[in-house]
Each structure stands twice: as structure tokens, then as C-alpha cells.
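This week, work through this protein record:
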Amino acid sequence: MPEAQQASRRVVVFGLGGTIAMTSSDIGGVVPALSAEQLVAAVPGLAQAGIAVDVVDFRRKPGASLTVDDLTELAEAITTRFADGNLDGAVITQGTDTIEETAYLLDLLHQGEQPLVVTGAMRNPTLAGADGPANILAAIQTAASPELRGQGCLVVFADEIHAARRVRKTHATSGATFQSPNGGPLGAVVEGKPRLHNRLTHRTTLPTGQRLPGRRVALATICLGDDGTLIDAAADRLDGLVVAAFGVGHVPADLVPLLARIADRIPVVLASRTGSGSTLRSTYAFPGSEHDLLGHGLIGAGFLDPLKARILLHALLTADADRATIEAAFDAAGGHAHPSTWPWNTPEPRQEP
């Protein structure tokens, strides 16, 4: 990109806290303390990138303490900043514990063309080799790039660019923790420029407007010999449930009556606990198989992993979607139906010339 064009680009950085913003505490260990301004000021090479940066110190929380309300307010704040004009993209810095969930929620709530880029750090600023500054620089360069317009919310980490709906945290401590098992990364930042290997062909976004508060959606992981005690104890207090089942969507046969009974009252989504690949619909037919469970009213998650499925179900319930709309949304988002069957109009991703 010519220098004059690059210099005209502007990005806003929203700081939410997390490891990337942590420093030593009086009681040992690290806690979120650095402001978003301090994070951006400590990035080597940013001044030479020729990208103007605005900064908003939005939250200072560990990633594990972020809430849906925090992210909904953030999405509204970003929309407001974009409406003011003169911004090419936004960067969100936060804790990595919840990035795969927060990024997908932001992706569902973001109607605009400008890229949202979520990043963080695995090594806090007190450690040798802290990765925060490099991740922030790559995230800003990605958010400023016109090549990423229309691709929704992205996660940029270790110079890789991932789609929010695909990305997962796969390792507790590795700097290469973020991976996209279903489809791989969209591209990488090379010599300061985002280079895409592939593009998203469609987006799925939710309409803005009034949302119902206090929706309770649980995620239950099925394990060997599971008798459903935990699910049964919690079911009456839930508005929705995601079941992380074996393989392509299987549970012990003895759980079927319980899950069928719950699915009569609230939406129950069937996902795979494996973390990659899709749930199936009709390959297996034994009691507790995917065909059996779908026949008892469960909703297949397709390629959405359990954490993504929970985010989508929560967002649909807060948007007051009815049962038919929820089923259609999961069919489209999970890959069981054509993207055009998504219940709402969505922005068309920018196509390469």
C-alpha cells in the first residue's frame, strides 16, 4: 500500500484487560493493570506503520471475568464509533481465556463492513518474550487493511488471521494456541501486511435492537457412563442447553428420555465434544445416536463447536427468536443448510476483484 494511502487509515483500539495488560501485584502473580493507552504506546514499529490509532480503555478484567453484557456494550460502543465515520477498523485487546467465545459473539453482533480484530497475549509484559506488542501491531495492521472488509470479526495471534466462527484456543500456554480446525486460518501478516489465503463466503449476523436480559444457557459435556445427574438438576433453571456429545452426536441410550423431555420445554442443541468436524444427521440410528436425538427434538450444531453453539443459542434467545428461527439459524450457521437460509439479511463479504 502506498505510504500516502496507508497514512490516511485510522483504527480504534478497545482495551478489556487480560494477560496482555497484566503487571505484578503486591500478593504475587499478575493482575490487569495497564491501560489501553499504555499497551498501544509500548508497541515497537507502530509509529512507522503510518496508521492513526484512537484508544478506549473499556474494561480491565481477566478474560475469565468478562460477561455477555460486557461484550454487548462493547459491540454497541464500536457501532457508535463507526457511525461517527473516519474509522477503517477496530481492535479489541483482552484475555485469551474467552477469546474464542467473545470473538464469535462480536461477529454475530457486528453488521458493518469494517473488520473487528480481537487479540491478546499468552506471556504477560513482565516475562521475557512477551507477545502482546507484536500481536497488537499485527491486529492494527489487519484492522486497517481494506482486504479484510466484510470478513466480520477476526482473531489475530502469532501473525495468523483467523475467522471468529472457526477459531479455538487449543493449548493452555503455547503462543500458537489459536487454531482453526475447520478450514484453517484465513491468512497471515507478513512484513506488516495481511495476506489472505482464503475468504469467508458468507456471514451470519443478528439484527440489532431490544434484547431480553438474563437468558441462562448451559453447556453439558457428556462423558463415559454419564447418567445425566447434573443435567437433570439444572434443567428447570435453564432457557437453553447445549450438549457436547460423543463423536458425531451420540449420548448413552439411558440419557435419551431425559434430553427429549428437556427439549420439549427449551431448545437443546447437539454439538460434538471433539472440537472439529460436524455433527451428523442420519448415519447412525441406534438409541442415543444423532438420528435418534434429532428425532426427539434436539437441534444439530453442525460444524459449530460446543462453545460457539452456546454463544449462538444465547444470542438467539436474547433476541427472542422462536423455535423455528433457532432451528433455521443453526442449520445455516452449522453448515447443514445453505447460508441463504439464515433467518435475517446479512452483509455480503467483499469479494476479490
Remarks:
- The radius of gyration is 21 Å.
- The first strand starts at residue 10 and ends at 17.
- The domain at 3-196 is CATH 3.40.50.1170 (Rossmann fold).
